Every structure is written in C-alpha cells, then in structure tokens.
Amino acid sequence: MKFRSFLMAFAIWLMTATVTVADEMKMAVTTSFHNSGLSDILVPEIKKDLGIDVHLLVVGTGQALKLGRAGDVDAILVHSRKPEEEFVAQGFGMHRREIMYNDFILIGPKTDEAGIEGAKTAADALAAIAEKGAVFVSRGDDSGTHRKELALWKSAGLDPEKEGGQWYRASGSGMGATLNTASAMNGYVFADRASWLNFKNKGELELLFSGDPVLFNQYAYLPVNPEKHPHVKKELAVKLEKWLVSPKAQKMIGEYEIAGQQLFVPNAGTLDSDS
Q: Domains, the chain, ranges and CATH?
C-alpha cells in the first residue's frame, strides 16, 4: 500500500511538473521597455492571472526580430513599425497588435552648448548638435530607438555614422548603458521618455527637447507564427496578448508613474495582418 501510494503521489507530482513546464514562454522585449521598470510590474501579475512564467530576453528591436525569425522566442514586444510590418508580411509573425505608446526625447547637458532647447523640430535640434560638433552618444545597436534616431538624422540631411567624426559616439549598447555613457561624457543622447524618467544617474543631463509629432513611439506585440516554427507556444502567446489588451493590463500600464509622471499611454485595439 505504501509503495502504491508513493507511485500515485509521484504521478501527481510528475503531472504538475509537466504543467509547470508547459506554462513557460519566452518573449523578446526592448531594453527601453525593460529599463522603464514596467516589466517588473506586469510580469508578476501575468503569472498570478494566467499561471504563465514569462521569461524576458531583453535586447534591441533588431535583435528581438532576429530571435523571432529564428523561432527562439514565442513573442516579441518592440517599437519600430516598418520592420514589424515586414516581420508579419514575411510570415514570421501572426499579426501585429498595438499595446501602448510614449515618446522619444533629446537629452543633453544643462549648459546646452548646441542650443537645442529652442529648436522648432527634432531635425533642427540634431542639425544644431552636428553644426556645433557637440558630443552625441548613439545606441548604435540596430534597436528601435537607434533606427528612429537615424531616420531623424536623415530628415535633417545628415549621416553622422559616416560623417560625424569624433563628436558622434556609438555605444553599441542598450538604453541604460547609453544613458550612462552620455552622462559620463556630458553629451547629447536620443532616448525614450520612460527610460529617462527611470534613469538614476542623470548627472548634469536634462531633458532639452520633446513634443515634435515625429517623436511618437508606439509599442506593439507580435506572436511568432507557428506555421514558420511549429514548436512555438502559440496558445500561451495568444493568452498573453489577450491579457495585455485587457482592461486590467491597460489600466496598469496607464497608471504606471515615476515621480508623478506617466510613462506610457495604453492604446490597445489595433490589430494588423492576422494570419
């Protein structure tokens, strides 16, 4: 009897362990999202409500898309619309679901030697930095933030990666590390508002330019397509998506603040290219 009871207990434990493994998934997220601190709020609630352990791979948007293409994650949360749409069009993503947005900003030394605080547009601000030859620290990592920065340089008629000289420095790092480098060098840097507000090592830096409509920063969720990678956990990815667009999650996103300032605006509801 004791042996039979042991076998039954072992079988129950084995079944429970199997369920636990099945309820784990991987999601690639941007460093800007993770650095904001919002993931620390959402992930425990996801586990509480859905019983899903979401393992985050914190990388830039470009690397997140590569992980999705390789089938190394079950979903991605990124912020660069054009490559996201290409990801779906090429069959790697089931669809693209908008979740929330914030904005990009330009940060620099309080002395503002390039005088960008009074600029009319983001392109004008970058042109002033280039004209002055003031130190500018770029992420240089093919992230959504880096791609947006390069697009703005292009709109200003400039290509600092080729022509920038000593004043243009690429960190090749995530948002937090790049902000640290800019702080140490007392230079200008392009960042998302959430990462800046949660950044503790501001030093002599301050927010100098924001508000240009081109600095809009949309975050979207893309579940990896099981037609490309049959091993991905589609059911868990879909459950997570439904939770992220739920009233509870959207309320949590909208109410997340640092120093009394809202970091993200929830705007779930737009679904692109369902496959």
A: 2-102+217-270 (3.40.190.10), 103-215 (3.40.190.10)
